[in-house]
Amino acid sequence: MSMAATMVRAPTFMDEVIAATPGECHLERCLQCGTCGGSCPSGPDMEYTPRAIFAMIAAGMKDQVLRSNTPWYCVSCYYCTVRCPQEIHITDIMYTLKRMAIKEGFYADSTASDAPDFSKTFIDFVESNGRSFELGLATRFHLRHRPLDAVRMAPMALDMLRKGRMDLMPKQIKGIKQLQAILAKAKELGGAA
Amino acid sequence: MKYGYYPGCSLERNASAYHQSTLAVAEPLGIELSEVEDWNCCGATEYFSINLLPAYALVARNLALASQQPENGQLVAPCSACFLNLTKTDRYMLDSPQLAEQVNQALEAGGLHYKPGSVRVRHLLDIVVNDVGYDVVAARVSRPLKGLRVAPYYGCLIVRPGYQSMFDDPEYPTTLDKLLEVLGAEVVDFPLKAHCCGGHMTQISQPVAFELIRRLLKNAADYEADVIATLCPMCQLNLDAYQDGVNSLFKTNYYIPILYFTQLMGLAFGMPATKLGFGKEFVNARAALAKIGVEAPASAPAEGATRRRQAAKEALPMPRMPKEE
């Protein structure tokens, strides 16, 4: 963020990513060593490994970066973050890329196009109740995106219900109005969604 | 020892066995837990992907509520995702005064305020091994888990990245190993002990998640573990509820109960299995418990075995894995 004050050129894509990530994320220090990709459990299923994504960010390839499945396939295990020799906050940067992809509307044609909707559906329930609601999430998300999966998963959902591991109705916190006021103010200040 | 307690959404339902067994073992260990009044969801791994400031504000409401309680100094979070989000929010509010100010402006809309750094969030395992201590735990053991081979599974978020502090090694943690040894269990080597369970990938891309789960099950099976001990509701759910699915995808035959470390502590303290939430697991723990002479409660439906589908002879083409050695 401090770079902005002294910059004479227009902000690059890398500047945008750094500015949208909380704290000092040190993205500019990347050495391209590949420790991140080598540590990543879903690396083999990503279109570009984290290392490649950082090179692409440096090269200003905004479209390709934000359309890729890479940030959505991040499982938040933080192996890359603790192993990075340059102490880059890699997992946090993946979250930044997800937010940017949603904002730019790019995720729709990535190969992980359902992922943002999963996050949004989850959050919808949290915003209206203050608690997560697994049954609602599973049914709404799966019916919308993969009705066949919803059918296939039904026996498991029934087992969850029978074993008392899932609620039929969402729980609501007492201070839901207070929480909603807080979130509304945060959205106003953060200027998004 | 008094602590604030933030159970999180999972412990109320899906991981109620964790909740129940946590409360059961807290008492003999002298841990007093007082639940944060009217806490809300931490946003799990999802809110930070959508909208940054509301994600922080959502978590910060819990920190603000916790800081108003008399136990405010210390807050216990047994769920790894809750633990991560609470520590992350505190850390970045501390690192970035601008973020702290905006989060507090949002909190003020609900009449709340949070001073960064005022709540120390700790995982339950940290409390048990460091505040209570192995000696006190050892003194409570009346039924050692003799002969039970346990794979200690830490998962990711309580050992990495350590937003507030670290209580164990991020690559090769050992605190749970030692705790299980104190309980009398035979702790097996488990090289993948801090690897990922797949997280939310079970919902987004099952083949990706199932491969991660398969690796963990195979690793535990290779070392002939009777059970895997876990400390996270997400890890428990992924390894337990999808074990069947992993078996049918990879034509494997794993059958490893996934139990919370607090359930194993309770058993070692001589508590009955019914008081520790047994019977809610998908992969039935009965055979494993029989090894230590504990009778599992007649679990609701289905003995594990009857649930297992017979693989169709040749249905849809399935990916083939190289033969497991």
SSE layout and pairings?
The complex is a heterodimer of chains A (193) and B (325).
Chain A: H1 3-6, H2 13-19, H3 35-39, H4 50-58, H5 62-67, H6 70-73, H7 79-83, H8 90-104, H9 115-129, H10 134-145, H11 147-162, H12 176-190
Helix pairs in contact in A: 9-10, 10-11
Chain B: E1 2-5, H1 9-12, H2 16-26, E2 32-35, H3 47-50, H4 52-68, E3 74-77, H5 80-95, H6 97-108, E4 120-123, H7 124-132, H8 134-140, E5 149-152, H9 175-182, E6 186-187, H10 201-204, H11 206-222, E7 227-230, H12 233-241, H13 243-250, E8 258-260, H14 261-268, H15 286-290, H16 304-307
Keywords:
A: 193 residues; Fumarate Reductase Iron-sulfur Protein, Chain B, domain 2; B: 325 residues; alpha/beta; Glutathione S-transferase Yfyf (Class Pi), Chain A, domain 2; Rossmann fold; 4-stranded parallel sheet; 16 helices
Main beta sheet of chain B, described?
Answer: 4 strands, parallel
Number of strands of chain A: 0
Mean pLDDT of chain B: 91
The helicity of chain A comes to: 55-70%
Proportion of residues in β-strands of chain B: 5-15%
Q: CATH H level of the largest domain in chain A: which superfamily?
A: Alpha-helical ferredoxin
First and last CA, distance of chain B: 49 Å
